[in-house]
Here is the input.
Amino acid sequence: LDIGVITSIGENHLSTFKSIENTKKAKLKISELLKKDGKLYLNKDSFYLKNISLKENYEYFKKLIDIYIIL
Here is the structure.
């Protein structure tokens, strides 16, 4: 993938993933699919995405409209 976007991690995912931690792990697997020069965008307004630490190739966005401008 050239670009990945995670807009949220929240309680609405609990029925599938059973915990917030499992939800984070599942959603962040998208970073493993990125090309070497790909970029992952994370929603800074999403409580559970605020303090994610990834090695490289990620950036926060404040509003979804920012993603449309980037793309």
